[in-house]
Design goal:
There is one protein chain. By secondary structure, the chain is an all-alpha fold. Helix content is 74%, strand content 0%. It folds into two domains: 97 residues, no CATH class; 236 residues, Heme Oxygenase, Chain A (Up-down Bundle), CATH 1.20.910.10. The protein is globular.
Amino acid sequence: MSHTSLLSSLTRAEDRDDWHALNTDLDFRKEVVLACRELVDTAYGQGDELALWNLHDILARIYDDDFGPPGVDRADKETQPIHRDIAAVLEKAVLERELADITDDEVSSYPEDPDAYVTWLKARIGDHGSRRHPLYREYLRNEAGVEEFRFFLAQESNLDPRFDDILALMQLGVSGQQKLELAANYWDEMGNGDPADVHTAMFARALRTVGADDAYIAKNQLLETRISGNLSACLALSRRHYLKAVGFMGVTEYMVPIRFRDFVDGWRRAGLPEDGVRYHELHIGIDAQHASGWFKNVVKPLIRDDPRSGREIATGALIRLNSSLRYLDAVLAHLRTATERPN
C-alpha cells in the first residue's frame, strides 16, 4: 500500500463485516503501518507539505470519529484496531516534531515546591512570543473587518467546539481537587445547566454571525490550524498524555482573557452584532478564574504528589506555546497577504 492511498483506506470499510475482515487481516494491517511510516518519512524526513497535509487529514478524520456522536449505525463498527494502528505511528511523529523544539533545560530546571513551580511556569508563559501576539494585539483589535473575523473564527474551530469534551475526558481516573476543578470548568462549559449558555452553542452563534459554515471552514482552514487541533485531541484522548494535557490546556486557559479582550474590542470596532461576541466576552472573566483554579487545584496537587510531574506539565505547556506561535504567525501572514491582494 502506498501512503497516497492510506487516506482512502479509512473509508474503505462500510459495515460491520467489512471492518471485522480488515481488523483480522494482519497482512493488511501491516501494510497500513508501513504506509504510515512512509508517510511520516515523506512529510517530516523529506519536508513534503502535501504529505504533511495528508498526515494531519488522516489524524483529523480519526479524531472526528473519536469525538463523533454515538448512534445505532456505529454500534457494530469496530474501527478502533486499525485507527489506533494508524494513530500510534502518526502521533509519535507529530509529538517528536514538537519535542524537537523543546530543550531539556526548558522542562527540567523547575522548582519542586508547588507554589514556586506555578510562579516558574507562569513566567515561562509570560515570556513566550505567543503570549501577546500581534494577531490579537494589533490586527484583530485595530484592523480586521468581517471577512477577516470570518476567516479567523474558522481557524479557531480547531479547538473551541471540542473543549467541553476534552474537559470531560480529562476527568477520567482523577480525584480530589483535580476532579472538582475540572468538573467546575466543565459545568461552566455546559452553561451551568442553561442550554442557551452552553459554550459550544455560543461559539456556533459567533460562527453563524460571520457566515463561517461547515463548508467555509473545511475550505479555508490552514495547515497549522489542523496541526493545532490535532495536538489538542492527541493529548486529551490518551491517558498517558494526561500531564502534558494539563500543561497544554492550562496555557490555553491562562492566555484566553488577554487575547479575547483584544478580540472583543476589534469585533465592536468593526460594528459586528453583539450576539456574536458573547462567547468571547464571557470567557474574559470566566477563564481568568479557571486559569487561577487550574494552577491552584490541578497543577499544584500534581507537583505536591510527585514533583516529577513538573517535567511533563512543562512539556505540554511548551507544546501549546510553540504550536500556538506557529499557528498565530500563519493566520496573521495569511490575513496580511489576503489584505494586500488587488481586488
